[in-house]
Amino acid sequence: MGRGGDEHVTEDLAIPGKGGRSEVAQVAAALVVVGSVIAVLWGLSVFDKSSARSEKPAACEARKSTDSPEYPMLCAALNRPDLPTLLGTPSEHVSVAQSGGGPFTYADGTKEYDASAEVQLGSVNVRITDNGDMSVKDFADFASSSAASTSVLGHDSVTYSDHTMAISFNFGGGQSSAGTGGIARHLVVAKNPKGGGGSFEIAIWRQDDMTPDDAALFRIAEKVLPTVRGWVAGASQMPSLSSSRS
Prior knowledge:
Layout: E1 14-15, H1 23-44, H2 71-78, H3 83-87, E2 94-99, E3 104-106, E4 111-112, E5 116-121, E6 124-130, H4 136-142, E7 148-152, E8 155-168, E9 177-190, E10 199-206, H5 214-224, H6 241-245
Parallel strand pairs: 1-3
Antiparallel strand pairs: 2-5, 3-4, 5-6, 6-10, 7-8, 8-9, 9-10
């Protein structure tokens, strides 16, 4: 990760054929977009330690025309004051808070926005994504080799891993290089305790060789997801009648 500054990167990714896509194709397209955006941000150092020089936590940046309509809500939910503690990095603060990326374009010319927000704390990056109507099962089936079923606040969920791509640019005129980067850990959680209505996703990856902390992944999900529009609380999350009267 070798470039300073916090310049934004957005890109249109061409995804073949939108009409009549199967659920598997939808998940494949989503993973392509997520992986590509992470690779671009990893390589171009959009999330760079040089932007952490400010002593104050970064606020979510204003929405641009290339950001999804859901971005302000997702960023506000993720960029909470206790996020450093939830992440296990209490001495760090959010140095960058912005959209996860621009829209991607299907072969028929229509665009679909990447409904996500990302933050950086030190060398760690966290992303929240609204996966729309894609279910936990869709992701579990597609990422079967690394997927593990679990539960978050009574909602079905699945964890899986993938790799970022490390891209090194030589702005002095030399050749650029690309290779496998670090591991990104993902937690996909059903929006509804009954399993329907789509899913949300929390992802963590690092700018070093360390593996992201799964415990932090779950801590963040348990605190952040109930504050996101579209989350349906289960019976175990509802206040009891006696406690509501006290």
